[in-house]
Specification:
By secondary structure, the protein is an alpha+beta fold. The chain has a single domain, classed as START domain (Alpha-D-Glucose-1,6-Bisphosphate, Chain A, domain 4, 2-Layer Sandwich), CATH 3.30.530.20. It is built from 4 helices and 10 strands. The strands form 2 sheets. An 8-stranded antiparallel beta sheet has the order 1-2-10-9-8-7-4-3. Strands 5-6 form a two-stranded antiparallel ribbon. α3 packs across α4. The longest helix is centred in the last third of the chain and has 26 residues.
Length: 174
């Protein structure tokens, strides 16, 4: 996993290389079944085309942060650009926490670029905001490691998808 600092405004950029084609990696960011497995979402609506909605919802976390409240809630925005099988840019992104005021607007950019031979892909996530302040700083201080963990889970999921599917089937059987 590589990490690069932002350019002044709060935000981050994280990357991970996965053993999967770029189209499959990007699909994992928009297909509900995939998002459930690697990002632990409860609900999602993602339409990967300009003006399409992008919204994911997680259950409220028992963890309460003194600055931003409980984690979980809904992250939503509008797709403003999409390069099929390669990139997604979501603008006017807001995080609606389980309690407290929403935080936004932000931008979320996901790129999936081939990385060498053999179907490997570099998945890069950039999230940024134009505003700053204690609440923004705390939000990014919490979400950057959260994204790092999510990308490692995405890597494991894409490289071992069949194991996740078997586990889901076993959990569904009474």
């Amino acid at each position: 996993m590589t990490k690069r600092a932002g350019t002044g405004s709060p935000g981050f950029e994280l990357s991970v290389v996965v053993e999967a084609p770029a189209a499959r990696a990007l699909q994992a960011f928009v297909a509900h079944d995939d998002l459930v497995h690697w990002w632990a979402v409860e609900r999602s609506v993602a339409v990967p085309r300009p003006t399409g909605p992008y919204a994911v919802t997680w259950p409220s976390s028992p963890r309460h942060d003194e600055v931003i409240g409980h984690l979980g809630g809904t992250l939503h925005g509008t797709v403003v650009d999409c390069v099929p099988d390669r990139a997604l840019l979501v603008a006017d992104v807001y995080w609606q926490p389980p309690d407290g005021d929403p935080l936004g607007p932000m931008a979320l950019e996901i790129t999936c670029e081939p990385d060498g031979e053999g179907g490997r892909t570099r998945v890069t996530v950039r999230q940024s905001a134009s505003e700053d302040g204690p609440r923004w700083q705390r939000y990014f201080a919490l979400t950057k490691p959260g994204w790092a963990h999510a990308l490692e889970t995405l890597k494991d999921y894409l490289e071992n998808e069949w194991l996740y599917r078997v586990k889901a089937l076993k959990q569904a059987v009474p």
